[in-house]
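Lab notebook, bench 4. Still working through the backlog of constructs that have no structural model yet. Next entry is a single chain of 78 residues. Request: give me the C-alpha coordinates for it.
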Amino acid sequence: MVGAYTKSTNNPLMPASSGSDGNQGMNGGMVYFNGYWHHYFGGNNASQIYHATSPDGVTWTRQGTSLTAGPSGSWNST
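Model written out:
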Protein backbone atom coordinates (compact mmCIF):
# COMPACT_ATOMS: atom_id res chain seq x y z
CA MET A 1 0.00 0.00 0.00
CA VAL A 2 2.62 2.48 -1.05
CA GLY A 3 1.87 5.22 -3.55
CA ALA A 4 -0.98 7.55 -4.34
CA TYR A 5 -4.28 7.11 -2.53
CA THR A 6 -7.21 6.03 -4.67
CA LYS A 7 -10.62 5.88 -3.02
CA SER A 8 -12.24 2.48 -3.46
CA THR A 9 -15.59 2.30 -5.22
CA ASN A 10 -16.43 -0.76 -3.07
CA ASN A 11 -17.75 1.23 -0.12
CA PRO A 12 -18.25 0.24 2.53
CA LEU A 13 -15.25 -2.09 2.51
CA MET A 14 -16.61 -4.07 5.46
CA PRO A 15 -20.42 -4.10 5.19
CA ALA A 16 -22.61 -4.09 8.29
CA SER A 17 -23.32 -7.42 9.93
CA SER A 18 -26.26 -8.63 11.98
CA GLY A 19 -23.96 -9.65 14.84
CA SER A 20 -22.93 -7.60 17.86
CA ASP A 21 -20.15 -5.97 15.83
CA GLY A 22 -23.09 -4.65 13.83
CA ASN A 23 -23.23 -1.58 11.75
CA GLN A 24 -21.09 0.71 13.87
CA GLY A 25 -17.34 0.39 13.39
CA MET A 26 -16.58 2.86 16.18
CA ASN A 27 -13.25 4.10 17.48
CA GLY A 28 -11.23 1.86 15.24
CA GLY A 29 -7.52 1.48 14.87
CA MET A 30 -5.34 -0.39 12.39
CA VAL A 31 -1.92 -1.98 12.39
CA TYR A 32 0.02 -3.82 9.68
CA PHE A 33 1.60 -7.01 11.02
CA ASN A 34 2.83 -10.25 9.39
CA GLY A 35 1.50 -9.31 5.95
CA TYR A 36 -2.02 -8.39 7.08
CA TRP A 37 -3.89 -5.28 8.08
CA HIS A 38 -5.56 -5.74 11.48
CA HIS A 39 -8.55 -3.53 12.25
CA TYR A 40 -9.73 -3.31 15.87
CA PHE A 41 -13.07 -1.57 16.48
CA GLY A 42 -16.01 -1.22 18.82
CA GLY A 43 -19.47 -2.20 17.66
CA ASN A 44 -23.05 -2.15 18.90
CA ASN A 45 -21.90 -3.71 22.18
CA ALA A 46 -19.63 -1.11 23.79
CA SER A 47 -18.10 -3.68 26.16
CA GLN A 48 -16.29 -5.58 23.41
CA ILE A 49 -13.53 -4.91 20.88
CA TYR A 50 -13.77 -6.69 17.54
CA HIS A 51 -11.09 -7.70 15.05
CA ALA A 52 -11.00 -7.94 11.24
CA THR A 53 -8.08 -8.75 8.93
CA SER A 54 -7.18 -7.90 5.35
CA PRO A 55 -4.27 -8.84 3.10
CA ASP A 56 -4.74 -5.74 0.95
CA GLY A 57 -6.75 -3.15 2.91
CA VAL A 58 -9.74 -3.71 0.62
CA THR A 59 -10.99 -7.26 1.26
CA TRP A 60 -11.83 -7.73 4.96
CA THR A 61 -12.64 -10.84 7.03
CA ARG A 62 -14.21 -10.48 10.47
CA GLN A 63 -12.31 -12.47 13.08
CA GLY A 64 -14.79 -12.01 15.93
CA THR A 65 -14.32 -10.61 19.41
CA SER A 66 -10.79 -9.78 20.55
CA LEU A 67 -11.50 -8.35 24.00
CA THR A 68 -14.50 -8.48 26.29
CA ALA A 69 -15.25 -6.67 29.51
CA GLY A 70 -14.51 -8.45 32.76
CA PRO A 71 -16.93 -9.13 35.60
CA SER A 72 -18.41 -6.20 37.49
CA GLY A 73 -15.88 -4.62 39.84
CA SER A 74 -12.82 -6.00 38.03
CA TRP A 75 -10.16 -3.73 36.51
CA ASN A 76 -11.52 -4.36 33.03
CA SER A 77 -15.25 -4.07 33.72
CA THR A 78 -17.40 -1.53 31.94
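Notes after review: Strands lie at 26-33, 36-42, 48-54, 61-68. DSSP finds no helices and four strands in the chain. Flag for follow-up if needed.
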